[in-house]
Amino acid sequence: MTRSRRFLGVVGQHSVLIGLAVIFALPFFFMLLQSVTPIEEAKTSVLWPSSFDFGNYGEVFDRVPLARYIRNTLVVCALVVTGTIVSCVPVAYAFSHMRWRGRGVVFVLVLSTMMLPFQVLFVSQYEIFSNLGWLNTILPLVVPAFFANAFSIFLLRQFFLTLPSETIDAARADGASELQILTRIVVPMAKPGIMAVAIFQFLFAWSDFFGPNIYLSDEANLTLAVGLVRLNTAAARLGESNLTMAASVIFVMPLVVIFFFAQKVFIEGVTLTGTKG
Amino acid sequence: MTGTAARPAAPEGADDDVVGPSSSAVPVVPAERLRAKRRADRKRRLTVLLLLSPWIIGFLVFTLYPILNSFYWSFTVKRYGSPARWVGLANYELLFTNDELLTALGNTAYLAVFGMPVRIGIALLAAALLVRARRGNGVYRTMFYIPSIVPAVASGALFFFLLKEGGPLSGLFGLFGAEAPLWFRDPQWAKPALIMVTTWALGDLMLILLAGLVDIPRSLYEAAELDGAGRWAKFRHVTLPMISPVIFFIVLTGLVGVLQSFDQAYVFSQGVREGRLTGEPGGSLLTYAMLQLRLFQDGRIGFASAMAWVMFLITFIITMVMLATRRRWVHTATEEWA
Asked: B85 φ, ψ to 5°?
C-alpha cells in the first residue's frame, strides 16, 4: 500500500519534472530549428521546415559584419576580465587576510554600492566619458573594469576567506611582504575562485547590451549584443527570423559551452552570492 | 620589510610625540621596539591603502561623483555639453504631474506583482522536486538552469520570434483551435510576454532556493511525520518557514531588479517601431526605458536625473520597508541570515 503510493509519488514527480524540462527546452528547440529553416519558409508560419538550410549561418555573416562584432566583443571581454581580476584581487585580499582599523565599515561601504541603481550613475558617467572624447570607443566599457567592482570584490573575498590563515600567518612571520603573500600564496591557492570571477565577468561583458548600446554607434565598433538587436529589428521587418535565430545561436553557444565546462564553478558562485548576499 | 627595527630611529621625529609619559617610565629597549612597531604599522596602513586604491579611485570617479552630479542636475535644465541652469523642483513637479511616470511605474509594478510570484513559484517547485538526490536530477537541474545564461537581448529576440504573429507559439495555439493574442501590439499582452521571458530565465532563483532547501535539517521533516503531517502540511509548516529567508532575499533583489528591467522590453519594441529608441511594447512603458527615452532621445538630462533619483528613492524605500518588516515575513529561528 505505502510502497505503491510512494511509487506513484515518484512517477508524479518525474512527470512534472519532464513536463517542466520540455517547456524549458522548447524555446531552444525552436531557435535551432528556425536557424536552419530556408528563407522562404521562415517568412511563413510553418512549424517544421521541408528541408534544413545550414546556409543561413553563412548568410548572416554576409549580411552583417558578424566576424567584426565577435572580434569586438572578445576584445571587450578580455579587457574587462583582465581589469576586474587585476583590480579586485588586491582589494579582496585587503578585506580578507589583512587586519586594519575600519575594515568592517569600509567593507559595508563597498557592499552598499552594489545596491545603488545603475541609473543614478550612468546619466552622469555618460558626460564624463563624453568629455574625455571616449564616445564610440570601447573605453567607457573597459576602463571602469580596472577600478574594481563590489560584486567581484565580494565574491573573491568569500573565496579568499576559505584559505587557511595559518599558512598566511606563517609566511608573514617569516618576513614575507603582503605583496609577496598575495602573489605567491593567496593567488595560486585561490585559482578556482579567481576563475569563477573571471567567468562571471566574461559572461557579463559578453551579454551586456545597455553599455555598448549607449556608447557605441559605428557599425564597425558594435558588440554582438547590439549587433543582434539591430539585426533583429531589420530582420523582423523583412520576416527573416531565421537569420536572427542563426545569429542568436552564434551569440549564445559560447556561453552554453562555457557553462558545461565550468558548471561546478557556476553553481557555487550563484549560490554563494545568492545566500550570503 | 626585514631590518627596519635595526635602523636608527632618528629621522622619525614627527611620529614620536605620542610616546610621551608612558615611555619615560619604561626602559629604552621597549621604546625602541614601540617605534619599530609604529613604523611597521604605518607601512601596513600604506600597503592597505595601496591595495585598496583601485576601488577608492573607482568609487570616487565612477560612483560618488556621478551620484552627486546627477543629484545636482535633477534641479536643473541641462543638455549634454552645455552648462546646467538651476530650476529648483520643476523637474520633480513635472514628473509627478504628468501621467507618463505613473504609467511607467504602474507597468513596472505589474511586472513585479504578477511576474515575481510566478517566477518564485515555478522555481520553488523545480527546486523542491530536485532537492532529494536522485538519478537524473543533474540533467534536470542543467536544463532548468541553462536559459538563465542566455543574454537578455538574445532571449528577447528569441521570444520575439516565438510569440510573433505566425510564430511557433501561435502555431501551437492553432493546434488547439485557439487564436494567439497579438503579444507586441497590445499593451495588455506585452506585459505577460515580458513575464514569460523572465520566467524562462529563473535558473538563478532555482539554484538559490535549492541551496536553501538542502540546508533544511531532515530531522524537522521526520518530526513532522511523527506528528502525522502530510505532504502539504510538511511544505506549509516546515519547508516554507525554513526557506522564508531565501525567499525574502529573492523578493528584495527581484523588486530592485524589476525597476531596472530594460533589455527585453527594448528588443520587443524595436521590432515593431523601428528606428525609435523606445522600450515600449505597445504602450507598456517601463520606468527604466522611460528614463533612457527622455535622456537620449530628448536629451533632457535634468529631467532624466530627477527621474533616476525618484527611482533611487523608490528602491531605497522598498529596501528599508522590507528590512524593517522582515520579522513578519521571515521565520525567526534563522537569524544568521543577513
From this structure: -120, 125
